[in-house]
Amino acid sequence: MKLNDFFSPIFFIALGTAFLAVSVWVWISKGKNAKAIKAKYKLGGMILTLSFFAASCESVVQPPEVTCYMVAQSYVYIPTENNKAILSTGDTLFVAIANPNFAYYSYSMTDSTKTNILQEGMMIKSTDTNFHIIPIKNSIKYSGKIAIDFYGETKNKIQKEQLIGSGFFNFK
Description:
This protein is an alpha+beta fold. It is 27% helix and 30% strand.
């Protein structure tokens, strides 16, 4: 735990308490004490400024870590517990997508140099899990390292609109 993580809540509590005390001072003086109003504005401004810099969201999947003011981008995660270490024809690749921003997702499976497309298509949303699935065709005649690029699509059509992730796998 960082020292800042410990003192930040204490600092905000102290600022909030001081703001409440100054607010009571303004209320007692019925808003006629200029020093009380000036102190209340300063404390309020400090609280707003510091809360702007402290506001953030924690992402379930690391990376990306974003603040609440930024739109989180789609992120592809390939869970090792659901997939084989070495893929082969007839296997199914399970893919999780965190922060889904697209209606559809496609993929392109190529050799490691990305010159020959081995298979491409639309990812299928699994009905019983939270994964998208990619069934690997039996007709692929390749052995070695493969690259898979994942794309976000606005239509149910392979257009390769926005690359959201890539991965390399061993293929046998």
